[in-house]
């Protein structure tokens, strides 16, 4: 059994602006975390860097698995404390002109340990999307 995370947010910005916030390394560093070697190209490997904690080096290893600009971006996600590789999928739709419905699905957290990891990630993703991304888009 795996645990999955779903976070949805409505943004008063067009999909192209939200897409840029999800794919520009400088923008990602402002609202998510610094990334190294990221390009929205299938097969591209990159790393995400957070503050290290006891037992975790702060590095998440990723690989882009799908790109459909400006609708879908997907990549694998595996930190050093994670037992399995998970998947992050961003889906952008335009419910009305100039607005974006952003759906984040982070899936594949296995077992009891996965439940704990999913809980930790869920809080981080919600905070990043509802506060930090919203703030970044408002000042862009």
From TrEMBL:
InterPro entries cross-referenced by the UniProt entry: ASHA1/2-like_C, START-like_dom_sf
Domain Activator of Hsp90 ATPase homologue 1/2-like C-terminal: 13-137
Similarity comment: family membership: Belongs to the AHA1 family.
Designated name of the protein: Activator of Hsp90 ATPase homologue 1/2-like C-terminal domain-containing protein
Organism: Actinophytocola xanthii
